[in-house]
Specification:
alpha/beta; about 80 residues
Amino acid sequence: MPLELRDDEASLVGSCTADEALEFSDWLANSAQPKVDLAACTHLHAALLQTLLAYKPAITARPADPFLARWISPLL
């Protein structure tokens, strides 16, 4: 599953599509101090990127994927 939600941290794993955006947004909105682990993310749909940019959660691990590390990581 691309979106692994726990009480205090979410992990985005593999190819994360727009299908996860609403659930992710709801989780971020209802978390007091959300943290997000992007280490295992290989594809991030723009809807999820926009959600990350809007809520500005703490990023606990940057993406290992070279493209995401270069182009997306600096935005967060």
